[in-house]
Amino acid sequence: MAVTTTPARRALDYWLIAHKHWWRLAVVTGLLTPALYLGAMGVGLGGLVDHGTGARHLGGQSYLQFLTPGLLAATAMQTAMSESTWPIGNAVRWNRSYIAMAATPLRPADMMLGQLLFVVVRVGMGSALFFVVAAAFGAWSSPWALACWPAAILCGLAHAAPASAFSVGRTHDHAYVALYRFFVMPMFLFSGVFFPVSQLPIGIRPLAWCTPLWHGVALCRDLAAGHSGLADYGHLAMLTAWLMVGAWLAAREHQKALAR
């Protein structure tokens, strides 16, 4: 489905205007949340891990250096999911702003693309703030860590596109609760953010490897350590595949939902 950039930019303007009163709160939470996580888990819990037997599974890194890039990818995932579930349901069913847009020359695919562009803005801003906080903790060990920023944005989009496809057709917000309870939270806990996936039971590891978050975590972790290799092209390909297939599904589901 062909999409021009100008109508999508107009759809993006809607999301930016709708959030213009919330950006200060987003900045505060974008600074406070990583500071709390890195302080409690990276420094506090990490002090115990670094002096225990678990340190041998971290590839010679401190636990803070191991945790930080994974937490950056996970934060990108959470931001993208939060902007691609209830806000889309709100636009379709409760404040019905998508219905108003459908009465203009904007097409459903333009609305979908505009919302994904807004996810780029939100994840890009949140990831930049996370990067600054992590630098203050001394968590980055290589200048290649700067490449984690676009990698985190791609990780966010790889979650936002399929979440958008799921959200636009739901008729009740219970579906979003179930999505978080049975998909987002297990993925957050078991995709290698807090410990290597190799520590999971061998039968469960393939489930983690299939998730986009695991590929985002692994890519950011390799970039942060300055140890990029062929495997990272595989992670990029998987994240891009999640994005492209998700965007195709989202465009189709937007068309169906807004034609009702």
Tags for this model:
mainly alpha, 11 helices, 0% strand, 260 residues, 74% helix
Describe the model.
By secondary structure, the chain is an all-alpha fold. It is 74% helix and 0% strand. The protein contains 11 helices and no strands. It has helices spanning 5-18, 23-50, 63-83, 86-94, 97-102, 108-136, 148-167, 174-190, 205-210, 212-225, 230-258. Helix 3 (63-83) crosses helix 10 (212-225), helix 6 packs antiparallel against helix 7 and helix 10 packs antiparallel against helix 11. The longest helix has 29 residues, at 108-136. The mean pLDDT is 92.
Layout of strands and helices, then pairs:
Blueprint: H1 5-18, H2 23-50, H3 63-83, H4 86-94, H5 97-102, H6 108-136, H7 148-167, H8 174-190, H9 205-210, H10 212-225, H11 230-258
Identify low-pLDDT runs.
none
Count of individual beta strands: 0
**What proportion of the residues is helical, as a percent range?**
over 70%
Order of helices and strands: HHHHHHHHHHH
Main pleated-sheet profile: none
Helical stretch tally: 11
Radius of gyration: 19 Å
**What is the beta-strand fraction?**
under 5%
CA-CA gap between termini: 19 Å
Shape: globular
Mean pLDDT figure: 92
Structural class estimated from helices and strands: mainly alpha
